[in-house]
Specification:
The protein is of the alpha+beta class. Among the domains are: 2-80, PH-domain like, CATH 2.30.29.30; 92-168, Roll (PH-domain like), CATH 2.30.29; 181-308, PH-domain like (Roll); 322-402, Roll (PH-domain like). The chain is built from 16 helices and 30 strands. The strands form 7 sheets. The protein has an 8-stranded mixed sheet, with helices on one face. The protein starts with a strand and ends with a helix. Residues 439-533, 590-683 are annotated as: Disordered. One of its GO terms (molecular function) is DNA binding.
């Protein structure tokens, strides 16, 4: 935005934001064009020296006034030209001054100021223009590619002619003067190939057989010098933003690989005074040493950034890195003082301050390795897999020391112990899963043998009176009385069973008792009152969900905690009063419940005493009966003496009449029981 002033002397525009002033003399104006643009109407002015100025935001009604002014003072006809809006992507390119115009017929589609072009590269029938980044705009156009069809003219390459027209006016980095120094045939991992690196004062030039890259030092973010795990090679990594581009591929990292044995003698293409003045002792005119040291030293001096090296981390083998796989490729992960860097395909640099949490996971294919997962605060997840389990302890201690959030801390500390326990053993010597399978197989075989030996429909759980609850014990007693009355042969078989059955029941005991333990809670008991926070949460849950659609349960709990913490004291007191009322109601309900419970307990005690009294009277009667009939049926007498409570209580109603007769003839000798009575007793 700014202010445009038209006077007889010329056109003046002042930028409101920067205060920059464009002053165009009237004598320099060559052409004026009026056209409709996105923001109403616009004015395009061309000068005699090829510069183009465009101003937008005019109203349509202002055309007549401007046209008259131009005629009167600048002797120019303000021409009306419309932009082409057909949407076609083929047409004619015209170069006029500092402007590249893409036209369809006589109408322009778009124009590119060539001063904005930073790079121009050619391919087969193709020209690519790259642009300087505009820091004032949220979104910048960075690249345009033109397809140039081949022509029949001999000796003229249309692609080269196009590129030369662009380069003649473009603001492209030009190699003015000689390079400070040149490193020949360096091995480059990304982009792959061998390149000559020419060091210039403001940029470095990568010259390869296929591609050339010019990298300004202002785009270099960080420098890394990393030793290879084999201790014979070195990685030199240059982090770039914006990245260098080749077609659709972006290279955010430039990775050079050096052998430690390679030496070089280097002479800078500057005199000693210039070297001393520019680099202040960081470089000298003549230097010699390892190739990687020379490259890193020159880059550090020119880029003026520190070189990052691995910190105090040492892996299991003594190396400062960990062998692992990222995506489909194997590489090296370097834990640094302030982040992790993975080389080399694809290179990844993750700073500690952008990490949300890390996670240690078991390897998916084998137990001899584990996975290391990193999730950033933006939600991006990186998984480094196939890390040897011997590296676990060192990596865990490093992550712990850097105070990174470990997602599964408790689980992994247990895992660490198990790793240490089997660290020196071979995988074949101990297999916990195999041992467990063998144990379960043995138990299944024993169960199958025991079930084939048993008779009838009796299950394992039905025979364990000493270890089961009262209900099960009573059930067993009644079964035993029934089975023993059937004859001596059956009782002998039953006597042999307990030794085998008890063993199997012992194994199954936890499964049997698990549901029994839940019977202690009375469903009719009053529920405990909620706290003030829980009452508020239940009332506010739907509102929080509507304010944050798609929120997870854990995030909802966190958000609720933050809202409750930020709540004023007066509002909290309101919920405290509600919680206090709920507590009073609970105490009142508990008193009523306890009173009712005590009444139920008294009734149960009276009933139990009555049953015991009846059982005692019945036992005395049956004792006298068994004496008179012991010579005839000893087995029958034994079965009567072992009758359970359940059997006795169920028999009371059916023998009510016989009780009345017994009570009337109390003191007189009772006659021996009839055959019908004895039959009912055995039932």
């Amino acid at each position: 935005d700014g202010r445009l002033r038209l006077s007889r002397q010329g056109v003046i525009f002042k930028n409101s934001k920067t205060g920059k002033v464009d002053n165009i003399q009237a004598s320099e104006l060559a052409e004026g064009v009026w056209r409709r643009v996105a923001l109403g109407h616009g004015l395009k002015l061309l000068t005699k020296n090829g510069h183009v100025y465009k101003y937008d935001g005019f109203r349509e009604s202002e055309f007549d006034k401007l046209s008259d002014f131009f005629k009167a003072h600048y002797c120019l006809e303000l021409a009306e030209k419309d932009l082409c809006v057909k949407g076609w992507n083929w047409g004619t390119v015209r170069f006029g001054g500092q402007l590249l115009s893409f036209d369809i017929g006589e109408q322009p589609v778009f124009e590119i100021p060539l001063s904005n072009v930073s790079q121009c590269t050619t391919g087969k029938n193709e020209v690519t223009l790259e642009f300087h980044q505009n820091d004032d705009a949220e979104v910048s156009l960075m690249e345009v590619r033109f397809y140039v069809p081949p022509t029949q003219e001999d000796g003229v390459d249309p692609v080269e002619a196009f590129a030369q027209n662009v380069l003649s006016k473009a603001d492209v980095i030009q190699a003015t003067g000689d390079a400070i120094c040149i490193f020949r045939e360096l091995q480059c991992l990304t982009p792959r190939g061998r390149y000559d690196i020419r060091i210039y004062p403001t940029f470095l030039h990568l010259h390869g057989k296929t591609f050339d890259y010019k990298i300004p030092y202002t785009t270099v973010l960080r420098l890394f010098l990393l030793p290879h795990k084999d201790q014979r090679q070195m990685f030199f990594v240059i982090s770039l933003d914006p990245p260098i581009k080749q077609g659709q591929t972006r290279y955010h990292f430039l990775i050079l690989l050096f052998s430690k044995d390679e030496d070089i003698s280097l002479t800078l293409n500057m005199n000693e005074e210039e070297v001393e003045k520019r680099f202040e002792g960081r470089l000298t005119k003549n230097m010699s040493g390892s190739l990687y040291e020379m490259v890193s030293r020159v880059m550090k001096a020119l880029v003026n950034r520190k070189i990052t090296v691995p910190g105090n981390f040492q892996g299991h083998s003594g190396a400062q890195c960990i062998t692992c796989s990222y995506k489909a490729s194997s590489g090296l992960l370097y834990p640094l003082e302030r982040g992790f860097i993975y080389v080399h395909k694809p290179p990844v640099h993750i700073r500690f301050d952008e990490i949300s949490f890390v996670n240690f996971a078991r390897g998916t294919t084998t137990t001899r390795s584990f996975d290391f997962e990193i999730e950033t605060k933006q939600g991006t997840q990186y998984t480094f897999s196939s890390i040897e389990r011997e590296e676990y302890g060192k990596l865990f201690d490093f992550v712990n020391a850097k105070k990174l959030n470990i997602k599964n801390r408790g689980l992994k500390e247990g895992m660490k112990q198990s790793y240490d326990e089997y660290a020196d053993s071979d995988e074949d010597q101990h297999d916990a899963y195999l041992e467990r399978m063998k144990e379960e197989g043995k138990i299944r075989e024993e169960n199958a043998n025991d079930s084939s030996d048993g008779s009838g429909e009796e299950t394992d759980e039905s025979f364990n009176p000493g270890e089961e609850d009262d209900d099960v014990a009573e059930e067993f007693d009644s079964n035993a009385s029934a089975s023993s009355s059937s004859g001596d042969g059956d009782s002998d078989r039953d006597d042999k069973k307990p030794a085998k059955k008890a063993k199997i029941v012992k194994d199954r005991k936890p499964r049997k008792k698990q549901p029994e333990s839940k019977k202690g809670k009375d469903p009719n008991a009053p529920k405990r009152p909620m706290s003030a926070y829980m009452l508020w949460l239940n009332a506010s849950r739907e509102k929080i969900k509507s304010d944050h659609p798609g929120i997870s349960i854990t995030d909802l709990s966190k958000k609720a905690g933050e809202l409750w913490k930020a709540m004023s004291k007066e509002k909290k007191e309101e919920w405290d009063r509600k919680a206090e009322d709920a507590r009073r109601d609970y105490e009142k309900a508990m008193k009523e419940y306890s009173k009712a419970d005590s009444h139920r307990g008294e009734r149960a005690k009276k009933k139990k005493k009555k049953q015991e009294k009846q059982v005692k009277g019945k036992g005395d009667k049956k004792g006298a009966t068994s004496k008179s009939s012991s010579s005839k049926s000893p087995a029958k007498g034994m079965s009567d003496s072992f009758k359970s409570k359940e059997f006795v209580s169920s028999d009371e109603s059916s023998s009510a009449e016989s009780k009345k007769e017994d009570s009337e003839d109390e003191g007189a000798a009772s006659p021996p029981p009839s055959s019908e009575d004895s039959a009912s007793g055995s039932d």
